[in-house]
Amino acid sequence: MYVAGQWIDTEKKIDVLNPYDGAVVDAVPCADSGDVEKALESAVRGARTMAKLPGYDRYRILKAAAELVEARSEEFAEIITLEEGKSLAESRFEVSRAVQTLTLSGEEAKRLHGETVPFDGAPGGSGKFGFTLRVPCGIVVAISPFNFPLNLVCHKVGPALAAGNAVVIKPATDTPLSALKLTEILLEAGLPAEGIACLTGRGAEIGDALCSDRRVRKITFTGSRDIGERICRMAGIKKVTMELGSNAPVIIMPDADLEKVAAAVAATGYTNAGQVCISTQRVLTSEKVYGDFLDALKPKVEALVTGNPLDVGTKVGPMIRERDAIRVGEWVQEAVASGARVVTGGARQGAIYAPTVVADVKPDMRLFCDELFGPAVAVTRFDSIDEAIALANDTIYGLAAGIFTENLEWAMRFAREVEAGNLMINWGPQWRADLMPYGGLKESGFGKEGPRYAVEEMTELKLVCFHLKS
């Protein structure tokens, strides 16, 4: 791991396992509180260095890093597949997105600016001239999840560096290799030695020390709602961005093109074995087209090939851990015991859970209420647009939602009334362009990602006022 300007090792190690077969891919150091202290001491110095680095130089570093990632894209893709388990095609796509995220972040490094303030429009403001400055926060702690071990790290590190901060990365314990390789790339691209640290270890052992330390001014976290709440409680007076859980709904109105809907649900419900925050989970379907939709969806889901994610034909690989696949099966069986039915899927082999469709799911079932984070979608009937919107909002989460309709009035009601930060019309909720403002409502978190918006979250605003003689 990279701490205080050096690559270091520890006696205690953590094995990185291949989710498909359980083989040891690599081993990484297990950081402790002493390593956290060294990282933060170094980051204090690094923050001063980064703040003095001109925006154009930060741009050049991030641009060079993007080019290096692109040049080594196949190496990165194989690392992602080996440590995370997603198909090689999905890993390659993630790498291409990471290149865009770093490139966009670099561009934002050139655009940090303030604005003039019209004091003469206020009583007593005559003779005053004001403007704002955006300055770095200082030290940013970036805590990333396992499911996008490269691109979601880039979404935190890229804007943090573009804004002139030092950043301390805490990658997911299951998938640290991509973040370590990215750190290596950034240093090769010319990043100052103390501008970054990458600590590998267990969140329970080092997370509290990172998040509660007063030297840290900004925390950016992607992960579960419960861990997010814990971080917020211990953070104290800090700037915090929280990208938390979801159980994203899709509304299918009676005028929808069911073939298009079925293709979209198959594409957005099972990517990365359903381990995506904005994955389609609840499919709210008009009573008028309920049976026809299930008939259209079933063959598309059954066509999704499971297996070794390194095989070219595999569409759905394993979940990150076998116990997660077991949990998905328990939730499905729990729904079936309460009156739901499995249309297709429902079988497990090790960490692979077959792409599954569960019909007749009721709003009080856990499959409807909670975040599944697995390769199953729950289909529920509704009678009217009012009921559909009420069902969509019947959750503590609000990250993403989708609707399929050709009716402009229904589409606008959905946009205005559904409580989610990302709203997709005529596609499923799992869609993200890396330049867009991305974030949730309610207990899906607060703050926005997307380099332009994240840079604002990772800077502080200062006001300057000249009191002139005339």
TrEMBL record:
The keyword Oxidoreductase appears for this protein: yes
Gene3D superfamilies in alphabetical order: Aldehyde Dehydrogenase, Chain A, domain 1, Aldehyde Dehydrogenase, Chain A, domain 2
Keyword Phosphoprotein: no
All residue ranges annotated as the Aldehyde dehydrogenase domain in the record: 7-464
Domain of life: Bacteria
This enzyme's EC code(s): 1.2.1.-
Key words of the record: Oxidoreductase
GO molecular function: lactaldehyde dehydrogenase (NAD+) activity
InterPro entries in the record: Ald_DH/histidinol_DH, Ald_DH_C, Ald_DH_N, Aldehyde_DH_dom, ALDH-related_metabolic_enz
Family that this chain belongs to: Belongs to the aldehyde dehydrogenase family.
PANTHER family: ALDEHYDE DEHYDROGENASE
Annotated protein name in UniProt: Aldehyde dehydrogenase
